[in-house]
Amino acid sequence: MKLCVKLGKPATEAYDFLKKVYGVECLSRTQVLEWFKGLKEEREEIEDDQRSGRPSTSKTDANIEKVGEIFRQNRRLNIRAVAELTDIDKETVRQILHTDFNIKKKVCSKMAPRLLTPEQNEIRTNICADILQNIENDPNFLENVITFEETWVFQYDPES
User: For residues 135 and 142, is the Cβ–Cβ distance under 8 A?
Assistant: First the structure.
């Protein structure tokens, strides 16, 4: 194309020439016309110009800090909830968590541990208090505890 420009050939003739030489693998007509125009203006770079469009305004230092603060306060929030709280796009929140905070796994409320109901919490507290009392009454109590791994234990019932 540089040769065609220096010889003063029109862009369409340069396109026809490239089409004959490269066939199906030739650049598109519009791309050839753009490159031809750039070479006529003595442009040497082959990179595309910056395109017009709205720049990304969501990923700012303030928004990164805001997402980090919310996520540190409650890790059980999913991306959508963080996006709603910060009024930032979900994809931007995902990118911030992935790149800036190095969180590779999905943030999902289903992965968080389940909270106990007040009744369950009271039962566990009573069980722990009973165990502590047994340990105080019998110092050898823990020696009678059998630990095992991934084994089914059935209660013996003489009638069955």
Answer: yes
Which has the closest alpha carbon to 88: 69, 74, 108, 112?
69
Q: Which residues of the chain, if any, have pLDDT below 70? A: 44-56, 104-115, 147-158, 160
C-alpha atoms less than 13 angstroms from C-alpha of 104 in its C-beta half-sphere: 0
Report the C-alpha gap between 144 and 137 in whole angstroms. Answer: 14
Which burial class, exposed, middle or buried, applies to 15 when counting CB atoms under 10 A from its CB (0-12, 13-18, 19+)?
A: buried
CA atoms within 13 A on the CB side of 105: 8
CATH of segment(s) 61-111: 1.10.10
Q: What is the pLDDT of residue 104?
A: 66
**Distance in angstroms (rounded) separating the CA atoms of residues 129 and 114:** 22
pLDDT the model gives residue 113: 44
Q: Where are the domains of the chain?
A: 2-40, 61-111
